[in-house]
Amino acid sequence: MNQNNSPNDDEIDLRELFTALWRGKRLIIICVMLSIMLASLYLRLAERKYTVRYVFAPVASENSGPNLGGLGGLGGLASLAGVSLPTSSSSDFLTYKFLLKSEEVAARILKDRDLLVSVFSSEWDTERELFRQPASGPLRSVVRGLKNLLTGNEPSAYIPPNAARLSEWMNEVFSSSEDRDTGFLTLSAETTEPALMVDVITRATQETDQLLKERYVATAEQTVSFYQQQLNKARAREHREALAKLIAQEDQKLMLASKGSYFVAEPITEPYVSLGPTSPKASLVLALSVVLGGFLGAAIVLIRKAFKS
């Protein structure tokens, strides 16, 4: 049987493809120009966002306390006595990061009425001086109706700003990350209101540090008293040295707590706010518009050629 050595019918002729694109270069250029115009319109209407960054470091050293496992069951005795033995400062720092955007810290921030009004400004009624549900526009009403039609879920009732809402808002607007090499905690955000974001982050970090300080002071006396009792009973040298070290650590933490300074984490820099907007990135948006416009124009040219064929 004779074999056909001619190219397959479905092979792409690159010369023919390039010729078709060259003949349709005017349409491709028009699509690119339209795409650039739309990108320019977007850049003019888009909100300018600034980068905010705040860096914190642990106050205490990262050295853990003495090993309590072999000290006559001291850890077990403490748990039976209802006393919480201290852990390393790294554990305090982890607690700090966890509480930073929690409802407990948010409840403390709620006491600052001016800050709360600034965060939920769209819901604040200046005439009545209370929070109310903002009026929904036509588009929002249509979206809500479609969502109800598709999912069957009724719109939830309006809830004025509370600790849960503020905590959820803080989890959305700024993020936290820890450097593994230095142990520094960086809080960062991209926002249209950098001054407000700096105020919120500053207040959240202060309230978190104060909360941990109050928790420690509330139990410190009981903890030190337990150590003193065990020190009086101890006979082994290693046991007495470990207890003395624990008491010294507690005294050091009590000294920090008694001062007006930071207890768990302290800022190592002033809050950083970018000099200019960092979002949207004009160069990236314009470059993408050129690429997308070129692809769109080329697709239209090839589709027209296919229909003509």
Can you tell me about this structure?
The chain has 309 residues and is of the alpha+beta class. The chain folds into two domains: 15-44 and 288-299; 52-121 and 137-273, no CATH class. It contains eleven helices and seven strands. The protein has helices at 14-23, 25-45, 74-80, 89-99, 103-109, 113-119, 138-151, 163-173, 194-233, 237-258, 282-308, and strands at residues 50-58, 124-125, 130-131, 175-178, 185-191, 265-267, 272-273. Strands 1, 4, 5, 6 and 7 form a five-stranded antiparallel β-sheet that branches. Strands 2-3 form a two-stranded antiparallel sheet. The longest helix has 40 residues, at 194-233.
Residue share in helices? 55-70%
| Structural class by sheet pairing and helices | alpha+beta
Q: How many whole angstroms does the radius of gyration measure? A: 32 Å
Instruction: Give the amount of beta strand, in percent.
Output: 5-15%
